[in-house]
Structure formats: structure tokens, C-alpha cells
Amino acid sequence: MLKVENVTKYYGKFKAVDNLSFSVKPGEIFGLLGVNGAGKTTTFRMIMGLLEPTEGKITLNDKPIDYSVTDDIGFLTEERSLLTKLTVKEQAIFYGNLKSMKDKDILNRLDYLLDKFEIKEYKNKKIKELSKGNQQKIQFIMAILNEPKLLILDEPFSGLDPFNVELFKKEIIEMSKKGSMIIFSSHRMEHVELFCKKLAIILKGKTVLEGYLSDIKRDYRKKNIFIKGDIDIDEIKSIKGVIDVVKTAEQYEVKIESDEIVDKVFSKIKNSKNITKFVVEEASLNEIFVSKVGHAYEK
Ligand code: ATP
Fold first, then answer.
1. Low-confidence ranges of the chain (pLDDT < 50)
2. Which of 49, 76, 104, 292 is 20 to 30 A off residue 233, Cα-Cα?
3. Are 195 and 233 within one domain?
């Protein structure tokens, strides 16, 4: 298990990470969310042992992270960190050797992953000749070449088209099923929501929300009802427990305090003839975030 316990990091007098704690078990996918400058990369660098926490401690299976365990870790950095003059194959040999892999194993794994990511034809191409998206794929392949037990992905989806986002997600889920611990950062709530069990949202280095997504959603009792058809907005708004009714191009969105209000809304509209939709949904992570910090999550 990876444990980050009460970690604080100062750059000079500036506090970039403030008393951060979370843990990730084998098989779990953990999302670290935050806007630019929130402290995500600093946290990852501390986990990788590239930066020393000012306070607190970080352990992997109860041991400090040092060179003895780096062969079991994969790291996708936010900025490109490929040797662009090398071919994909040369880069893989270089990186795999750093992770103590044998050339034969590296090449087998590389062929398997290039095939999976549908870029077999680039094996002997120089990295600088590849498109940005394909370079991103190569960087991801390098991060998982050694089948790491701990995989750290700093903004893995940035710059990817939706098809490739899906490819990456599939691979990440597969790795988690095989027992890897996976941490990734993102600005995009919707990526995290669909995909990870556990998360922390940090804002200026401080945690504003942390835990299992299912618990976070359960504890946040407000819900939304989506209704299509003609309704009397003022009548719905007058129900105690209805927070707001918003009309969008397609439908009405009724924001309610809790589950108990659903029946009251339903009984008001059930006699309307043209209702074609009545769906109750949990609040989105973005809504929960806004309610916690009082303003919208900037992308
Ligand atoms: P982004 O999404 O933009 O990558 P981030 O959440 O990864 O942001 P960090 O890169 O960890 O954020 O930066 C956190 C804060 O620490 C920022 O205010 C940044 O300016 C500051 N910072 C980062 N590195 C240093 C450094 N080496 N010296 C001083 N301040 C730094």
C-alpha cells in the first residue's frame, strides 16, 4: 500500500502542499484533482523521491521509497521526457534497462504494447518524427513497460483525442485489475468520476475533499431530477426541499435537498400529459466540489 501521511512541502516560504494524507491499496485507482498550481506535480515528485517532503512521510508497503523500489514504479511526467533523437525501440531499451529489465523481455513487452496501442509501425521511427498524440502513447508505454506495481500518471489524458483517452483508460483499468496501485492527476472531474474509486481534490495545496467516490456521493445528499415535458416551474419551486429549477434547451433540471423530495416533485407533475422523462441522478463531482469551495472548478 502507498501511504502519504500529513505531507507538507515548502518552496522557501511558500507552502505548495499543506498536510496532505491519502492511501492507495493494490488494485485501486486514485485520482488527485486540482487546478494548475494546486500541488499535484509536487506531490508526485515527493512520492517518486525526487523531492523531500518538508514534513510528513511517504511509504510504499511500509518502507520509505528509495532506489531499492524504483524498479517497481512507473511514472508518466506531465512534460514530455522522451529522448526524441532515439527510435521507439532504442528508447524502450534505454528505459527498460534503467528498470533492470533484460533486452529480450523489453522487446517482447514493447511489441505487445505497440500492437495494443495500434502503433506497431513506429517501432523503428525516431520519436521526434511522431505526432504529439503518438509521443504521448510512447511515453505511456514507457511508464508501463516494467508492469509497475505503483503507476503514477501526471495528466495522462492531456492532448489525447477521445478514442485514445478510451485506450489509455482501458489499459489503466486492466493494470489495476492485475493489482497495480495507480495514481493519476487531472483537471477534468468527469475523467475521475467515471474511472476511479478514490480521490482527493486539492486547492492551493490543501485537501478540500478526500475519500471513496461512493462515500462522497452518498454523504452529499443533494440530487438532481431531469424532467422532459411541460411543467409549472413556480409550482415545483414552491415545494419545500426544492433548491432550484433550471431550464435547459432539452429539459428541466430540478435540484433537490435529498431523496425524500423526489415523491413530492413526482406527485406535482404526474398528471401532466406530455412528460417523456423523469430521471433522478446523484450530483456530479463538479457540483459537490462547487458546494464545498463555493466557486466553480476552473479548467
Ligand atoms: P499544474 O496542473 O499546473 O501542473 P500542479 O498542481 O502540478 O499544477 P505544482 O507544479 O505542484 O502544481 O505547483 C504547486 C505550487 O508550487 C505552484 O504555485 C508552483 O508555482 C509552486 N512551485 C512548483 N515548483 C516550484 C519550485 N521548484 N520552486 C518554487 N515554487 C514552485
1. 299
2. 292
3. no
How many secondary structure helices (H) and strands (E) does the chain include?
Answer: 10, 14
Ligand 1 pocket test target in 7, 10, 11 with most atoms within 8 Å of CB: 11
pLDDT at 150: 96
Parent domain of 259: 221-282
Asked if residue 182 and residue 274 are part of one domain, the reply reads: no
CA angle 279, 280, 283 (to 5 degrees): 130
**pLDDT tens column, 223-257:** 999 999 988 899 999 999 999 999 998 899 999 99
| pLDDT confidence of residue 296 | 59
Q: What is the pTM of this model?
A: 0.84
Claim to verify: residue 178 and residue 116 sit in the same structural domain: yes
Residues 81 and 203 in one domain: yes
Asked if 91 and 142 count as a contact pair (C-beta separation under 8 A), the reply is: yes
Give residue 295's pLDDT. Answer: 64
Domain limit, last residue, from 201, 217, 233: 217
Q: Which long-range contacts (CB under 8 A, 24 or more apart) does 290-296 make?
A: 291/220, 291/222, 292/201, 292/208, 292/209, 293/203, 293/208
Find the helix or strand (DSSP H, E) in which 96 lies: helix 88-98
